Amino acid sequence: MRIGSAVTIDAEGLDALIATLASRGYETKGPVVRDGAILPGPVGGINDLPVGVRDVQSPGRYRLEHGEGDAVFSWAVGPGSWKAEFFPPSQELWTSTLEGDVVTSEAPVADVAPLAIVGARPCELAALAVLDRVLLDGAVTDPHYAARRVDAFIVAAECGSPASTCFCTSMGTGPATESDFDLALTELDDDDGHRFVVRVGTDRGAEILEYVPGSETTPRDMAARQAVLASATKAIDRRLETEGLAELLARNLDHPSWDDIAERCLSCGNCTLVCPTCFCSDVSDTTDLAGEVRRQRTWASCFDLDHSYIHGGPVRSSVSSRYRQWLTHKLSTWWDQFDSSGCVGCGRCIAWCPVGIDLTVEAAAIRASDGALRSSPASGRDGR
Ligand code: SF4
Ligand code: SF4
Fold it and tell me: Which ligand is nearest to the CA of 329?
């Protein structure tokens, strides 16, 4: 096998792929059904994947439907992204102990098995690439993120069943993928049977595939793959107009839409918790009288009042200022910081917002009335 080549495997082949990865010492994880959602979890074979499960998503709504059929990737994305595998919600950064007069500090990086992800969506690969720019390739590498991320084996699953909340086509992140994977699956389930086209992205992907039964992908199967992707592309009708978007938001910081959104926004932070690219964190120390100190990093949200607390008060005390911070960072100032969008169009923040606030709709509303100003002038420390 060589990079760029493809084989077609059946369900047993996918089972063998997962088993081969496990036999090489990888911790194998993939999408599993848990707590009424599709979430990352341990997988030992194809039957651990969401067999016959579909998701139905819309603003403020997410449901699973259990149907017939063998398909395992007939859903879009669930609330849990792969971010948590590399940048966990809670992470111990260092500990310090006091014995006598001697202070000893340790900053252990967990020695865990390398991770193999089976079934990462193209938008999720794009999200990991965004996180890599921040946590791996930035000015300071996060050792915890790097320890898990660098050797991770990625089996992508191209998307044939987008949700109504998806807009990856606007962001250039799906439903197909051409990079950032070791192997890429496209599930086919038609008159020719249930099978997967597997494309090779790296040499180690090719090497693993040598142990998986399959046959060279025929032009007919490659055409079937293209048909699946074309159908998925056609099904995605949610749009985010990205032309000039960063500049649009930057010049509309006093637009009345921010107050309109704040009338609906609960400032719950759900959108930041489900977002595969949000990386804000908080650091806290726990001390005891015996002299032990533990420093912990936990996910934080720019919707928390405390998140912008500086020198006696929060910089963003209003909900409108916090939503504005979130959206303008994702779609505008992220470009200044990381030379990319902070949004990959996965649609999670739309489905998991309890009141169904949709960033594509809000951005379009601002575009439709570009330059509009609040009726009353901005006031207060955060300009509302
Ligand atoms: S902002 Fe929303 S649509 Fe964009 S990557 Fe985050 S969760 Fe997905
Ligand atoms: S936009 Fe929705 S999910 Fe985000 S903080 Fe507001 S109410 Fe919560």
Answer: 1
> Where in the chain are the domains?
6-235, 245-368
Ligand 2 test: best mutation among 257, 261, 264, 268, most atoms within 8 Å of CB?
268
What band does 289 get if pLDDT is binned at 50, 70 and 90?
confident
Residue nearest to ligand 2 atom 4, measured at CA = 271
Question: Is residue 19's pLDDT more than 60?
Answer: yes
* 267 Cα: distance to centroid of ligand 2 (angstroms): 5
For ligand 1, whether the C-beta of 76 sits within 6 Å is: no
* Residue in the block written with tokens 């809000």: 362
- Residues 135 and 278 sit within 8 Å (Cβ to Cβ): no
**Burial track 105-114 (b if 16+ CB lie within 10 A, e otherwise):** eeeeeeeeee
Distance CA 6, CA 223 (A): 13
- CA-closest candidate to residue 39, choices 103, 9, 83: 83
Token reading at 187: 């599930």
- CA distances (Å), origin 9, targets 15, 31, 231, 351, 359: 10, 19, 22, 33, 39
Q: What CA–CA distance (Å, rounded) separates 325 from 138?
A: 22
- The pLDDT value recorded for residue 379 is 55
The pLDDT value recorded for residue 381 is: 60
Q: What is the DSSP string of 292-310?
A: -EEEEEEE--TTSGGGGEE
**Residue closest to 359 by CA, chosen among 339, 341, 343:** 343
CB 14 within 8 A of CB 210: no
* Ligand 2: nearest atom to the Cα of 272: 4
- Tally DSSP H helices, then E strands, for the chain: 14, 16
Q: Which ligand is nearest to the CA of 323?
A: 2
Q: Is 80 in the pocket of ligand 1 (CB under 6 A)?
A: no
Contact 277, 125 (CB under 8 A): no
Q: What percent of the chain has pLDDT over 90?
A: 90
Position 304, amino acid: D
